[in-house]
Amino acid sequence: MAENNTEDLLGFIGKDSVTGFEGLVVAKTDYIDGKHWYSLEPLIPGIFIDIDDIESFHLEQIQFVRKTHINTQITRPKTELGCLIKDKLTGFVGKVVGVRTYIFGRAPDIFVIPRNEDYERLSTIFAFNEPRLIVLPK
Questions:
Q1: How far is it, in rounded angstroms, from Cα 114 to Cα 117?
Q2: For residue range 39-84, what is the model confidence (pLDDT) as tens digits?
Q3: If you ran DSSP here, which 8-state letter would residue 38 be given?
Q4: Cβ pair 109, 52 in contact under 8 A
Q5: Residue 135 CB partners (closer than 8 Å, separation 6+)
Q6: CA of 42: how far to CAs of 2, 71, 109, in Å?
Q7: Distance between CA atoms of 116 and 21, rounded to whole angstroms?
Q8: What does 57-115 look like in DSSP terms, one character per residue?
Q9: What's the rounded mean pLDDT across residues 12-18?
Q10: What's the rounded Cα separation, in Å, for the pair 92 and 38?
Q11: How far apart are CA 16 and CA 29, in angstroms?
Q12: In angstroms, rounded to a whole number, what is the distance separating the alpha carbons of residues 15 and 90?
């Protein structure tokens, strides 16, 4: 499976090798430093957990157990890592350092730092739902 393909492991059942947490892989986040994190929704029979109540784990920690038959409709992000964006609502301008893609057709979340900040030294990253953003020219 291609590690850089956003859709490659979404919809699988995954298990964190450190904590034993097991769940449906509902999101993948790609970061500007090349790291990939997958988000798992707990498996509770008959109960759908809100997608905001997910746990995220580094790719290297997850064992991908099996593929499910869940419809993994994906809205592909249009925003690229490293580009400058402006939030339509607040006017915030920043650099994209992460992109999270979800199953179930949910719009991607974009992780942004202030445009003059250094990603390696920054402790705060802002998250925006992609439809709120305008990509600025370089």
A1: 6
A2: 998 877 665 555 567 889 998 999 988 888 776 788 889 999 999 9
A3: E
A4: no
A5: 78, 79, 80, 83, 84, 85
A6: 25, 17, 20
A7: 37
A8: EEGGGEEEEEE-----------PPTT-EEEETTT--EEEEEEEEEESTTPPPEEEEEET
A9: 93
A10: 27
A11: 16
A12: 38
Tokens of 105: 């057709």
Place of tokens 């990509």: 135
- Coil, strand or helix: which one is 32? coil
Both tokens assigned to 46 = 């008959």
Structure-block tokens of residue 129: 């739902």
Please answer whether residues 72 and 39 qualify as being in contact, where contact means their C-beta atoms are separated by less than 8 angstroms.
no
50 token code pair:
């809100």
Q: Taking CA 28 as the corner, what is the angle to CA 67 and CA 34, rounded to the nearest 5 degrees?
A: 125
